[in-house]
Write a structure and sequence with these properties.
Layout: H1 3-22, H2 34-43, E1 48-51, H3 55-59, E2 67-68, H4 76-80, E3 89-92, H5 97-108, E4 114-116, H6 120-126
Parallel strand pairs: 1-2, 1-3, 3-4
């Protein structure tokens, strides 16, 4: 094996290792089911619940106890940065896309326990769970 081939192999392995270490593996964690979400909430009543949808969506109905912090708003990071990073944070949106983004951002900010509701408020409603007007 010549020097260039060995260098290329070593370079490729190093690049792969760097890319793996930079990717947030915990943001790939699966979302939790409605049952799991309820169990976590019951076991940890101090958990912070965040509806990451727009204020209009939030005002149309949300999960009881949820605070509205819109993940698409520029104020999302400053607002969540004031929260306790060691506290369980439970996020949801309409169907799961924005909450996955919010979960990844929270984890990048150092939050250690972020739970993302599978199916969002649509799934919650489909399961006939209670929705409240804020």
């Amino acid at each position: 094996m010549n020097l260039n081939t060995r260098f290329l192999g070593l370079f490729t392995a190093l690049l792969f290792a760097i890319l793996q270490s930079c990717s947030p593996t915990s943001s790939n964690d699966p979302q939790v089911t409605i049952t799991e979400f309820e169990e976590i909430r019951a076991a940890q009543p101090e958990a912070i619940i965040i509806d990451v949808r727009t204020p209009a969506e939030y005002n149309s109905g949300t999960i009881e106890g949820a605070n509205n912090i819109n993940v698409l708003d520029d104020s999302f990071v400053p607002k969540v940065s004031t929260l306790d990073k060691n506290q369980t944070v439970m996020v949801f949106c309409k169907s799961g896309g924005r909450s996955a983004k919010a979960k990844a951002q929270l984890q990048e900010l150092g939050f250690t326990n972020v739970v993302d509701l599978e199916g969002g408020i649509k799934g919650w409603k489909a399961a006939d769970k209670k929705v409240v007007k804020p």
